[in-house]
Design brief:
The complex is a heterodimer.
Chain A: H1 7-28, H2 34-37, H3 40-50, E1 65-68, H4 74-84, H5 124-137, E2 144-149, H6 156-167, E3 173-179, E4 182-183, E5 186-187, H7 188-191, H8 197-203, E6 207-212, H9 216-226, E7 234-239, H10 262-276
Parallel strand pairs in A: 1-2, 2-3, 3-7, 6-7
Antiparallel strand pairs in A: 4-5
Helix pairs in contact in A: 1-3, 1-4, 1-10, 3-4, 3-9, 5-6
Chain B: E1 6-8, H1 9-23, E2 27-31, H2 35-38, H3 40-46, E3 51-53, H4 58-70, E4 74-80, H5 81-87, H6 89-97, E5 104-108, H7 126-131, E6 137-139, H8 144-156, E7 161-164, E8 169-171, E9 186-189, E10 195-198, H9 203-215, E11 221-224, E12 227-229, H10 233-243, E13 245-253, H11 258-269, E14 273-279, H12 289-295, H13 300-312
Parallel strand pairs in B: 2-3, 2-4, 4-5, 5-7, 6-7, 10-11, 10-13, 13-14
Antiparallel strand pairs in B: 1-8, 6-12, 9-11
Helix pairs in contact in B: 1-3, 1-8, 4-6, 9-13, 10-11
The chains are: A alpha/beta, B alpha/beta.
């Protein structure tokens, strides 16, 4: 896998990812566009700049690990894996269909590249702690990245893991929160207020970085910073827009888990394509 | 009687972990603040770098173990059966079993013989919860010798497994040299009058009942079916054919436990009448273990009465 270092090329990669996300969800007739699109820029930087892995050898012991704690963003993960070369892009069209390896939520026993099955929220950070802990025990250099939804932070287990990670000084662990401020039932601050979120993670002893989750340069710098931090885990609170990149989906909770119809798809792809060619 | 004949089953587990600590560098032990009670502290003192106490956080513990297993570790996750099977059920279902991870779950303090701590601490539904999970193996050893062997074998076997232990010191039924194989029921006594299947330390009451029954000229076959899943169908069908009916004894709810597992096999293969000595749709309560076993119809005396009746029917 070739590492992309140019910001413009990473931006373009993120748009390619968005294109396939929307396309595959429309084909499936169901799925989660909102939270897949909001994390597309973060995903693109992670997979095409930050992480070390080998699609020809998914079991490579020293690879960096990515855990999609917000499992409903499966279309994002599948698209990243396809673009990275784990499987053909054409397989993306099998999403959510019978006999497909691309289950509605990621199933690791079916698809190489998916580290662990997720879908039931609140578990990814704990799993990542285990992987990071094993890395420390074995003196390995791999790093562990976990993408959490902000609504997911309602789950108490996340905070159990937050305590564990600092207690064990897991500086090889980087969590990223896709802070799009919307969960299924509405605004996170209305449903179950998360703020002051940075103060919470600070209090739990994490190195906390606030960024604009759609600014490629911000994202690159955040990972750069993570790689310099010792003796504590890092969390990147990435301010994002749910449905980012498709005008009619942006900031609408209703697009959390709904597929676009034919006209909506055309409109969405047109918008994304326009940005791909600028 | 030799002192090694009466020991808590968790001692067998604790000793097996010590052995595994020496022989398999990948074996790790996790506990949730109950390590003196579950005997994992023995391992923790000897191998502190491979012992993780997560504090009182069972859900976190199960998923941390999941992560460790992804890196080739063999984590033994240990706490009271009631907490690990109930509180962390979703973590076991959606992460460990769904991803088919090599995580070993050890639930100590199974059954009402936990005693004074009462219903909140007595796991009586754990076998049901664990055996319904696809890819999960469920083993319920009867004494400390068997717990030792089960632990050693589970460490070698790939995939998720639940090992159920108990609190009380009970009389050993097997010995150091008896054969033990996961998935293969063990015939403890061959008799001519009926067949009794049991799992776990309740076996010590069954063995006491056997002596009482001999005095009444009743000679049952007694089978220690320590593996609830995968269950030894062949053995169950064989004895259902021989006697036309079966009896089961367990320290667990009747719903979903050993009796239910056997009934599933019989209903599909060789329908036969059954009598299930178990806990019927209620929680446990505080009391001395022997008092509770008697009150719940699971003491040697009560088992004996039930067998007598069952043989006459």
């Amino acid at each position: 896998m070739e590492r992309i270092t140019e910001i413009d090329q990473l931006k373009r990669k993120a748009e390619e990812i968005r294109y396939d996300i929307v396309d595959m969800i429309a084909e499936a007739g169901s799925g989660h566009p909102g939270g897949s699109l909001s994390a597309a820029d973060i995903g693109a930087v992670l997979f095409f700049n930050e992480m070390k892995y080998d699609p020809q050898n998914p079991e490579w012991k020293d690879r960096d690990k990515f855990i999609l704690s917000k499992g409903h963003a499966a279309p994002l993960l599948y698209t990243l894996l396809a673009h990275a070369g784990y499987f053909e892009r054409s397989e993306l069209k099998t999403l959510r269909k019978y006999k497909s390896r691309l289950q509605g939520h990621p199933a690791s026993y079916m698809l190489p590249g998916v580290e662990v099955s997720t879908g039931s929220l609140g578990q990814g950070l704990s799993i990542s702690c285990g992987i990071a802990m094993a890395g420390k025990m074995d003196k390995k250099n791999y790093r562990v990245y976990t993408l959490l939804g902000d609504g997911e932070l309602d789950e108490g287990q996340v905070w159990e893991a937050a305590m564990f990670a600092t207690h064990k000084k897991l500086d090889n662990l980087c969590a990223i929160v896709d802070r799009n401020r919307l969960q299924i039932d509405g605004d996170t601050e209305q449903v179950m207020a998360l703020e002051p979120l940075k103060a919470k993670w600070d209090a739990f002893g994490w190195h906390t970085i606030l960024i604009d989750g759609h600014n490629i340069s911000d994202i690159l710098h955040a990972f750069e910073e993570f790689n310099t931090i010792r003796k504590k885990p890092t969390i990147i609170l990435a301010k994002t827009v749910k449905g980012k990149g498709v005008s009619f989906m942006e900031n609408i909770a209703g697009w959390h888990g709904k597929a676009p119809n034919k006209e909506e798809l055309e409109q969405a792809l047109k918008e994304i394509k326009a940005r791909m060619h600028t | 009687m030799k002192t090694q004949d009466i020991k808590p089953i968790r001692d067998g587990y604790g000793n097996a972990l010590l052995k595994l600590g020496e022989t398999n560098p990948n074996v790790l032990v996790l506990d949730a603040d109950l390590s003196t009670s579950t005997r994992t502290n023995w391992f923790g003192e000897k191998f502190p770098d491979r012992f993780i106490d997560v504090g009182i956080a069972e859900q976190n513990m199960v998923d941390i173990a999941a992560g460790l297993s992804l890196e080739g570790k063999i984590p033994f996750v240990t706490t009271y059966g009631v907490f690990v099977s109930g509180r962390a059920f979703d973590q076991l279902r959606n992460t460990v079993c769904y991803s088919q991870l090599n995580v070993k779950i050890v639930g100590s303090h199974g059954g009402i013989s936990v005693g004074p701590d009462g219903g909140s601490h007595q796991a009586i539904e754990d076998i049901a919860l664990m055996r319904i999970l696809p890819s999960m193996t469920v083993v319920v050893p009867c004494d400390h010798f068997q717990a030792y062997k089960a632990t050693m074998q589970l460490a070698k076997m790939k995939g998720p497994a639940y090992l159920r232990l108990a609190r009380e010191a009970t009389k050993a039924i097997t010995n150091e040299n008896s054969n033990f194989e996961i998935g293969k029921a063990q015939i403890v006594n061959e008799g001519e009058d009926c067949a009794i299947f049991f799992a776990g330390t309740i076996g010590s009451e069954v063995m006491k009942a056997l002596e009482l029954l001999h005095d009444k000229n009743i000679f049952p076959t007694i089978i220690n079916i320590h593996t609830i899943k995968p269950i030894d169908k062949e053995c169950i069908i064989k004895y259902a054919k021989k006697f036309g009916k079966l009896m089961t004894v367990e320290e667990h709810l009747q719903a979903g436990g050993l009796g239910s597992a056997i009934a599933e096999v019989l209903a599909e293969n060789y329908p036969a009448k059954m009598k299930m000595l178990a806990i019927y749709d209620r929680f446990g309560e505080s009391g001395k273990p022997d008092v509770l076993l008697d009150a719940f119809g699971l003491s040697a005396r009560k088992i004996c009465e039930q067998v007598e009746e069952f043989v006459k029917e």
